[in-house]
Amino acid sequence: MANRTRSNRKYPKRTNSGDAKAAAKAGAARPFRFRDALKALGPGLITGASDDDPSGIGTYSEAGAQLGYGIGWTMLLTFPLMAGIQEISARVGRVTGHGIAGNVCRHYSPWLLNVVVAMLFAANTINIGADLGAMADATKLLIGGHSIVYVVLFGVTSVAAQIFLDYRRYVSVLKWLTLSLFAYVAALAFAKISWGDALAGVLVPRPSWSVDYFTTIVAIFGTTISPYLFFWQASQEAEDQRVDSTKRPLVEKHYGAQKEFNRIRADTIVGMAFSNLIALSIIVTAAATLHAAGKTDIRSSADAAEALRPIAGAFAETIFALGIIGTGLLAIPVLAGAAAYAVGEGRRWPVGLARKPKAAAAFYAVLALSAGIGIALNFTPINPISALYWSAVINGVLAVPVMVLLMFTARRRDVMDRYVIKGPLYWLGWLSTVAMTLSVVAMGVGFFAGSK
Fold it and tell me: Which residue intervals make up region (Disordered) (predicted)?
């Protein structure tokens, strides 16, 4: 018996040691899989990728067509500003368990909340309409048909997926849709690029003291630093806590905070770097093809795709158009979802894409309403380019107070407890806010100067 007992004592130790070695060996030998890497990323990746929506593609194409390689430096400048303000948004959501609107309604005046939410809903809805129109035009370029049919098809499909798909599966679909943006990296292969000039354009700012130049810079800032991105990423961090039973707001469960902040930073940096890489690819492609050929009258993403055919070939046009459709399918849910989160959290309704439709009927109704109005805008005589311009104006004006509110909220100990934002990240957030404020002032000066 004694021998058997000693044997039994040793056996588990040998087994555990063997299992540990086998697990270590399996882990060490396991090959890199893109699916695993994509799975490790979250709201930051989707937020960054959705920033390159069809309207953004039009802005970047126009910038490259008008100003050539020399405007590329803006992507290097906006990257840390985007990453800083988005990380702060994500931290607020993860720490408090509420999105931006949820925190504003708890700590600030109701009238301020109502103004911010109304402006966000209007801007997002107009943007949805413009994006649907661009997607429809791109589809028409590829296979013909009637644009309005594609508008309805894309709009209804996006809303239905958000309402009826399981949350985890839906987020997985959005992550895979980010791959469509590589179409713009592929498009570089069809352009005769002067890589020396392109690199100089990124690293050495050479401003041209003209109205067109500064208007383009303002447009780029307004496109890359958008309020709906703040709302979406903060709300998605809060949403993940509702889905994962092991997670609680950090103000309630302090353990593991640093690990969460490290995850948020990595996720955000990857997402914003990806966003700016794609934007830079679009600018360089447009500069090497459209600008080089003297074709500067680009007003939309669909115009850019169509203009590429005689210069870079039909295949380049096809790749560009497919990218517009893919990124639109990614951006429309983010735009509609951000509007629904803002309204729902502001009213303290049950919110979240992880909830069943019956459990969050008002939330889903707002989401469907925003997308529905966006679809309807394409049936009106409203010029989509004009609508997009006013959407950019609203977004620009809204971004400043939202960023100021976000910075004050992130510094409040009654909101963030021990996790108030401080140090370099805090000052980077304010730098981003100041840069956006200057951009809006420049936009206003340009608007009034142009109206005289």
Answer: 1-24
